[in-house]
Amino acid sequence: MHAIRLTRAGARLQDAELPDPIPGPGEVAIDVAYAGICHSDAHYRAGAGRTRLPITLGHEVAGFIAEAGEGVDLWPGDRVAVHYLISCGECGECRRGGEQFCSRGAMIGKDRDGGYAQRIVVPARNAVRVPEEVPLEQAAIMMCSTATAFHALRLSGLRQGESLAILGFGGLGVSAVQLAGMLDVSEIFAVDRVQEKLALAAGFGTMPVDASRGDIGEALLQSTSGRGVDVILEFTGNAAVCRSALNALAPGGRLMIVAIDLRSLTIDPYRDLLARERRIIGCSDHTRSELVELLDLARRGEIDLSHAVTRSVQLKAEAVDAVLDELESGTAELRTVIEVSPAPPADEEPAPE
Ligand SMILES: [Zn+2]
Ligand SMILES: [Zn+2]
Prior knowledge:
Layout: E1 2-6, E2 14-17, E3 27-37, H1 39-46, E4 55-56, E5 61-68, E6 79-82, E7 85-86, H2 92-95, E8 106-107, E9 119-123, E10 127-129, H3 136-156, E11 163-167, H4 171-182, E12 187-192, H5 195-203, E13 207-210, H6 216-223, E14 229-234, H7 239-246, E15 249-257, H8 269-273, E16 279-282, H9 288-299, E17 309-313, H10 317-329, E18 335-339
Parallel strand pairs: 11-12, 11-14, 12-13, 14-15, 15-16, 17-18
Antiparallel strand pairs: 1-2, 1-4, 3-5, 3-9, 3-18, 5-6, 6-10, 7-8
Helix pairs in contact: 3-4, 3-9, 6-7
The chain binds zinc ion (2 copies).
One zinc ion binds near residues 38, 40 and 59.
């Protein structure tokens, strides 16, 4: 099979021909239909985040079951998307519901081979059924950006009537707008410095805030009659943007740290937190049950991610590298997916329901 490999940190990706992976007991092989290209992959390529090498990147994956190992309740042709966190299900953290913190956990596309390939093998538990109503390219990106936004909003406790500011309007931002819309929030502000993205954000019904024009905190305060916003989702990884936005957090407000590249933030605990009972909350990944919930929201048409995937490229190292370069330098695209094999395998009819 064809796969795109990272062999050395900081190097370009490479095209490779590998043997088809074979599922063991309790595992499935999936013919990849689409794989999302994520900003995190740019970090892994650059050498941040202790990625196992060599590796096939790609953690936003959807496709068709090609082969199921012993004892698996999935059939060739079934439409599935991949939950990228592998957890043991037995340790203390797993049992308390925080599978992201599993002591034996691993991430598909970082610790083991991911979906920048024609075929992938994963534990059957990590293959989540995709309802017929949900296109596979949307299911693929829901496995990361939408799910991460969903998890962050859930942790934030955002309620009806509250206001939300999204710092950095990309794949996560689009998903956050859709999800927050279900909660009937009072106002959503989208902060970015790329004009095309601000225009897009306005098209989604948000109030755009141009980060290239002066102080973001000031702009947010002015737009809320000085009260500030209730919840901020930090997707930029930019300390100056985050710091400025923190000044515009309402009493009782929550700053949700989601971007993995925000590594320093200077705060005054009294002025910034205590005096206004603000909270800064870290958000890590999401859970399998949240993915099932999200796919059901999409099936019912409660969220619509048809505008989140703005481009597709072929399964070629050069093409994927170019997208990762763009993600590093800033891009007007929302989400790019690799189109691998979008149609179900011809000789493998879906099993009857
Ligand atoms: Zn991702
Ligand atoms: Zn565990």
